[in-house]
Amino acid sequence: SSDxxxxxxAVAAFLxxxxxxxxxxxxxxIETRARNAKFLNDSVDLLKLSISELTDALDVLHGGGLHPExxxxxxxxxELDQQALTTNSRSARQALIDQAIALKVxxxxxxxx
Length: 113
Hints:
single chain, mainly alpha
């Protein structure tokens, strides 16, 4: 039948959250490498990967109408990553990345509560 029982919805939501948490974990790992990269080009490539992971996480959460507060933090983290992409100063880039990582950690904590 076409009736979706609440346990199916709960499982779907759980899988979405697990998927998003994995994207966030990966983004933090990639971004830590971007932060430590000596060369802007390497950092830019890694930041683009991180943005892609975060966009996936956001799509999954948004699609399920899940964790709006975490979604907000992820959107802000993406904005910071995009700023970091165009920042030539390594120290300024690292400061932006640090803020973005803190937001990702915050989003992850929101989702675990």
